[in-house]
Amino acid sequence: KRLPMNLIYTMLIIHGIRGFLFPRYSCKFYSRFGSIERSRVNRNIASYGQSWPTKSSTVLMQSDTIYALSSGSITVTGVAVVRISGPLADLCLSSLLLSPIESQVKEYFPEPRKALLKNLYCPNLGDKIDRGLVLWFPAPRSFTGEDVIELHIHGSRAVIISVFAALEHIDRLLQLIKADESPPSTGRDSAVWDLIQQYMMRKRITASQFGNIRPAERGEFTRRAFESGKMDLTEVEGLADLLAADTAEQRKQALRQMDGYLRQSFDKWRLQLLQCLAHSEAVIDFGDDDREDSVDASAVMAAIVPQVRQLREELRGHLRDCRRGEIVREGVRIVLGGPPNAGKSSLLNALARRPAAIVSPVAGTTRDVLEVRLDLAGVPCLLSDTAGLRGEHCEQEVDAVEVEGMRRARAAFEQAHLRLFVVDASSSEQQGVLGLLQSLLDSDKTAATASEDEGGAGSEGRLLVVANKVDLLQNSSSADQQQMQELSDWLRISGRGSATLLQVSCATGAGLAELEETLACAVADLIGGSDSAAMSEGPLITRERHRRHLLLCAASLDRFLDMRLPMDAAAEEIRLAMLELGKVTGRVDVEELLDVIFRDFCIGK
Fold it and tell me: Which residues pair with 382 in a beta bridge?
């Protein structure tokens, strides 16, 4: 008689040992036998750096089931996709598939991840809504980690609104059951009522444990995927960038980020810092012991410092990326500047291939910054036309509106990635134009002294000097040639030898193809990979948020490498560096950022 009890005790001891070595196995075993508190198991798992859901099945059932149109706004399309996610998604599907001619009420569960062509019925009136494809993605193998239903239906407003109205009616019936109301008298509502009762019996839950069925908020599907561990914060941002991508380079960068390139890099750094922190903590805990096995602090520091220094150099390489990731995501700023009536607006229209700006022979027609979007080398570009610039002695002769336009033009010229200084090749006042260009470059020197760790902004934007109206030159006379040569010599003498001098004619189109090719090459150079190994696989920083946290991480590593801190303070600097890396991927508390990030998503994502 004692043999079965001995076997049970032996099994418990064996599973206890396995539970210590394999925490996930411990959760499954003890949750079955109920012989250990769940909180204790979670603490055991946390010590191994693993995650485990802390919500019980009852709490999960209480979360709302959400639905939305995932294929865009409600317009006339061939196919519309309605996504339903949450614990009641299967109940919604069974209610929509409940045929009015069936004599027996039953739940319907399609085969997971297999598309079936089914009729959808209104749970209120029983009439047919549409015929479409139905897919079921049971948890956790779904986008959100919950049960997900996708309805691929025809994209008319009437069909979409009818599906939404049917889901709202199912929610109203659930609220009646929660309020302990009497069953509806109509035959169709009573059939859905019976279906819900069967669902409750199968799930072994009560009506009070139901959540609501409601429309999804902006980005809520993706937020649930993040909260269930399906995506980290950088992958969420990559998905947002992919949805907003306009060019090929934006698409490639967003896909790379969504596939986990950033997460893998940050997690690798965080693991390296975790190992260094463990050694530092060992020195703090055991370094002062008199035992033979006490930790030698100098030996530990000699092993940690090279690793931290190497990591700091990797960070420095990525921070010196000239903001390539942000440029691809936000676009290259190209600004047309120069004296009045040089043909800047005509050049803007020629590059945009449409009459975007008003062209007039009257000097000073453009008073504000006019922007058009271009696609050069697969990169989004923002081409800006600005007010004509005059010398300081001439600003007294114009009105206040033109003065404000010139101020804005100078500010845009200073902030540009690519600067096109347009001059009139037929003008005889080249010396005044060169003085104007020199004043612009001199005022930019202050902005060009930014720290390299803040994105390499210290290198000023590339300059292209465009000599427009070459069709007005009188058969390439010696005087005209001398003007072009003087301009080229000035660029070389002034230290702007890297600047490009191009001759174009917006009237005849001469030189425009060469200008476009030069612009495309300049844009490709801006986003091209660096020679360093840190940039060989593409930019790691795609948002200002990433750069800010990496700068704080690098500052903590610099303080650690200062070698003048006591061991406990040095360990704290490593811990702060890990904290900043964790904020990038969302491993630590970033609740205040989530609303901002998910607000950029559409309703159905």
Answer: 333, 373
